[in-house]
Amino acid sequence: MTWRDLSFIDAIELLSKHEAYSQSARKEAGMIKKIESYPELADPQLQPRYTGIPTFFRLPHTMRLDEVDIGLVGVPFDGGVTNRPGARHGPRDIRNQSSLIRKVNQATGVAPFDLVRVADLGDAWIERPFELQGALAEITAFFATIHAAGVTPLSVGGDHSISLAVLRAIGKNGPLGLVQLDAHCDTGDDYLGSRFHHGAPFRRAVEEGLIDPKRTIQIGIRGSLNVAEMWQFSYGSGMRVVSIEEFYDKGWRWAAEEARKVVGGGSAYLSFDIDSLDPVYAPGTGTPEPGGLTTLEAQRLIRDLGSLDFVGADLVEVSPPFDTSGVTSITAAAILFELLCVLAQARVRRRSNVTRPDV
Ligand SMILES: [Mn+2]
Fold first, then answer.
1. Residue 54 C-alpha to ligand 1 middle, in angstroms?
2. How many Å lie between the centroid of ligand 1 and the Cα of residue 298?
3. How far apart are the CA of 223 and the centre of ligand 1, in A?
4. Which of 48, 117, 223, 331 is a good FRET partner for 60, with 20 to 30 A between their CA atoms?
5. Rounded to the nearest whole angstrom, what is the distance from the C-alpha of residue 190 to the centroid of ligand 1?
6. Centroid of ligand 1 to alpha carbon of 26 (angstroms)
7. pLDDT value at position 240?
8. What is the pTM of this model?
């Protein structure tokens, strides 16, 4: 039947039905899905995990900060890279590969999506990505909004310079402790005339009072040096530097205990540079250093930090163009899940401390 076959009355009736339908469709379209229902995490038997628009962990994408406890944020910026670029492509690739991740941590039993409200807040929007200091300021402004709303940020870089921008937002009320997994201390000074680059964020963070060097531990440090005292700032300021040799001799369980000792009970930040892992596990990165952690060592180490009061975390330096198979982003997604689990544990602990009447 075509419109020609309809009487005038039929046509009016059909049009009004169509109008009613489209009104209700518009009404439904205006409704934001309730975050509690986690439709994107529905039974994979009903909705395969490779379907849909890729967000981190297939989470709902929202800008409603009042509906979120932990917000995943992409920071597609690599303007601070000193050598091989490409980390700007990290967030999109990790979003894609993170669809492989399920709901429950099989080792610890932590189910972060049940414990707290988690969402993908999209990317930190940078309007002028080619102006390094301006871009860092834009990233800080983005995270300041998130922080003011009481949301715990879990960020995906981007190169390691973004950590300074995040810390400027969430560490401004007093220095935080820091657990950093990295091949490099990233406490260098000026390089080719710039104070800001991915080899210096934690020196600048100490100078700006954002992190407490005496509550900072750097794990996995290795690689050849430009000069013997290349990371002298770490040692001089009182950071605990765990070389890969010490880590290899004493193991992940010892390293976790050492991290808990150094950081103590105060608020802390966790920064995971994918180059802490051996390049056999994570070749897609800007400054690979052979002879690093295994993925399993990193996973077990992070799981053992569930008692620390983390108020934010990031995963940085994934450069998909240097990858050979996608394994770096798959590995990064698995590590990101571990970071989410310890952030969720900390968040739940803070919540129960607040509501406990005897505290
Ligand atoms: Mn780094």
1. 26
2. 15
3. 12
4. 331
5. 16
6. 47
7. 98
8. 0.88
156-210 pLDDT, tens digit per residue, is 999 999 999 999 999 998 899 999 999 999 999 999 999 999 999 999 999 999 9
Spans of all domains in the chain: 53-355
Give the closest residue to 257 by CA, choosing from 242, 236, 235, 267: 242
Instruction: Please provide the distance, in angstroms rounded to a whole number, between the alpha carbons at the two ends of the chain.
Output: 72
CA of 41 to the centre of ligand 1 (A): 32
Residue 5's pLDDT is 55
**Which residue has tokens 């976790």?**
256
Q: Using CA atoms, how far apart are residues 131 and 138, in angstroms rounded to an integer?
A: 10
286 CA to centre of ligand 1 in angstroms: 10
- Number of Cβ atoms within 10 Å of the Cβ of 324: 8
Query: Which comes out higher in pLDDT, residue 46 or 358?
Result: 46
* Correct CATH for 53-355 of 2.30.110.10, 3.40.800.10, 3.40.50.720, 3.30.70.120: 3.40.800.10
Whether the predicted pLDDT of 69 surpasses 50: yes
Question: What is the Å distance from ligand 1's center to 292 Cα?
Answer: 13
Q: What does the pLDDT read at residue 353?
A: 79
15 CA from centroid of ligand 1 (Å):
61
